[in-house]
Specification:
GO terms for molecular function: zinc ion binding. This protein has 305 residues and is mainly α. 61% of the residues lie in helices and 5% in strands. The chain is built from five helices and five strands; from the N terminus they run E-E-H-E-E-E-H-H-H-H. The chain has a three-stranded antiparallel β-sheet with strand order 2-1-5. A two-stranded antiparallel sheet has the order 3-4. The termini are far apart. The C terminus is likely disordered.
Length: 305
């Protein structure tokens, strides 16, 4: 086994192995162990940072049965010189690989630092936003308290309004009952008025028929009066003619020896009846008779005889 010490980067000089398995030069590992700041009895591996003891117990005070289990922290290793070139090439390739990994780690470290700066800036922004949100939250809490007090006042007002609504509803019920009673009374009055109107219409119809009969009677009497006036005029004319023609022939005619003819006797014995008294009859025409249904029941009839 051959290789390079990872501390001095030279070939191993009296190589030793520590409990974690890594191999170093005895001088290099002793120097690392002596460089510790405190006087501790342990040291750390330069590669894996695993601790190992620097002291070994004294076998004099241990029973012999425990001697095989007591191991020194540094164990001597004997290297094989064969294949040293291959091991060197492998070590060099390993070193190149480690260098590439180191470059990647450095780039990752730079990226992480940039990300850290961005995260820090974002954190600062979040902190400023948090301050704004905290102020807004305080304002919102004040607003909530104000709204709660407003809600309480509104609830009291709502209760008062509910009481008022109940009172108004009771009053409305009373008004509706009164309106229903008034409606019933109005309907009864309308039915009474309808019956009275029907009776008045019947009365008006009867009066119209009666007036029509009186009108017909008046017309017949008027015609008879006209006939009587004509007869009277004739009688006057005849009497005047008889007076103008007063002769002995006429005297002889009206004497007891000369009897009258049937016509003259009927004319002389005819009783002249007096003229009837004029009667004034007011009759509605057909256009006004259609309005009898709307006559005032308390108004007297305009038909006069």
């Amino acid at each position: 086994m051959s290789g390079l010490c990872s501390i001095c980067l030279n070939e191993y000089d009296e190589p030793v192995s520590i409990p974690c398995g890594h191999v170093y030069c005895i001088g290099c590992i002793v120097g690392v162990a002596n460089e510790t700041e405190d006087e501790a009895t342990t040291a750390k591996c330069p590669k894996c940072r695993d601790e190992f003891h620097l002291v070994s117990p004294d076998l004099t005070y241990l029973p012999k049965k425990y001697h095989p289990f007591v191991v020194s922290p540094l164990r001597r290793i004997f290297l094989d010189e064969s294949g040293e070139a291959e091991q060197i090439d492998t070590a060099l390739s390993r070193i190149e690989q480690l260098e590439r990994e180191l470059a990647k780690c450095r780039t990752r470290l730079a990226d992480s630092r940039e990300n850290e700066d961005a995260a820090r800036q974002q954190g600062d922004r979040h902190l400023s936003k948090a301050r704004v949100y905290r102020e807004k939250e305080k304002a919102a809490l004040k607003e909530v308290k104000r709204l709660e007090s407003t809600c309480e006042r509104l609830e009291t007002k709502c209760e008062e309004l509910e009481d008022t609504v109940e009172e108004l509803s009771s009053k409305m019920e009373e008004v509706e009952l009164r309106a229903e009673q008034k409606d019933v009374e109005t309907k009864a009055e309308q039915r009474r008025m309808q019956r009275q109107n029907a009776a008045l219409q019947k009365e008006v119809k009867r009066l119209k028929d009666e007036s029509q009969s009186w009108l017909n009677q008046y017309r017949s009497l008027e015609e008879e009066n006209k006939a009587l006036e004509v007869d009277l005029e004739r009688m006057k004319a005849r009497s005047l003619a008889q007076e103008a023609e007063a002769t002995p022939r006429n005297a002889k005619r009206f004497s007891a020896d000369s009897p009258l003819s049937d016509a003259e006797l009927a004319f002389s014995t005819r009783v002249v009846r007096p003229l009837p008294k004029r009667r004034k009859v007011h009759v509605y025409d057909e256009g006004s008779a259609s309005t009898f249904g709307n006559l005032n029941p308390f108004r007297k009839s305009r038909i006069s005889i």
